[in-house]
Amino acid sequence: MHIAIAGNIGCGKTTLTKMLAKRYGWNPRFEPVDNNPYLADYYADMPRWSFNLQIYFLAKRFKEVVEISQSEEDIIQDRTIFEDARIFAPNLHDMGMMSDRDFQNYSDLFDTMISLVKLPDLMIYIRSSIPNLVEQIQKRGRDYEQSMRMDFLQGLNNKYEAWIKDYKGKLIIIEGDKCKFEQNPEDFKSITDQIDARLFGLFPEI
After folding, report:
1. Is 113 exposed, middle or buried (0-12, 13-18, 19+ CB in 10 A)?
2. Of the residues 41, 45, 78, 121, which is catalytic?
3. How many CB atoms lie within 10 A of CB 7?
């Protein structure tokens, strides 16, 4: 079984991935951040490094999704290949930080890859406002994220909403501004109740 968590930078994907992996005994797969050779350069000069970074993520994510499809384990994934191509790369292109030529090259490569990829068994989307994202980004204190532009985050949010509106698979939407699953056990239980209902046909206790 393949469960995926989607959402903007700082929305709580990694935290929820860890919590759900522990709750259900799922094998977590995390976004490659700490060992990413492009990330610091990218945030310092997005136009120069955007294509390199997106190709790096695409290659890593495609390798991972192939491994997931071949695995007999139940896996929960922090961010998906769909977000790279439907949200991050188009947002960079729209902002003039990825050239038409690079974006077309990237899109052609993704279209070939995606023909071999199926949707997760369940997608969990964490919706979050820009102020909430900024608060979380500042709290985790990654130096290279502190100069992130508000219009960049807003562009991502807009594309997330457009993508999730047309998403065809099984989907749970979490309102990240209100649902404080890390601090509040009842909020976390509301998420697991929804997961149980969607994946296992179980209804939450009344």
Report:
1. middle
2. 78
3. 25
- The strands making up 122-127's β-sheet, listed across from edge to edge, are 27-29, 75-78, 2-7, 122-127, 171-175
Q: Among all chains, which residue has been given the structure tokens 């384990």?
A: 73
Q: What are phi and psi of 37, to 5 degrees?
A: -75, -10
In this structure, how many other beta carbons lie within 10 angstroms of the beta carbon of residue 89?
25
CB contact burial 15-30 (16+ within 10 A = b; e otherwise):
bbbebbbeeeebebbb
108 is an active site residue: no
Written as tens digits, the pLDDT of the chain (206 aa) is: 999 999 999 999 999 999 999 999 999 998 766 678 898 898 889 899 999 999 998 998 899 989 998 999 999 999 899 998 999 999 999 999 999 999 999 999 999 998 888 899 999 999 999 999 988 888 776 666 666 778 889 999 999 999 999 999 999 999 999 999 999 999 999 999 999 999 988 655 54
| Burial (CB count within 10 angstroms: exposed 0-12, middle 13-18, buried 19+), residue 108 | exposed
Q: Which domains does the chain have, with CATH numbers?
A: 2-200 (3.40.50.300)
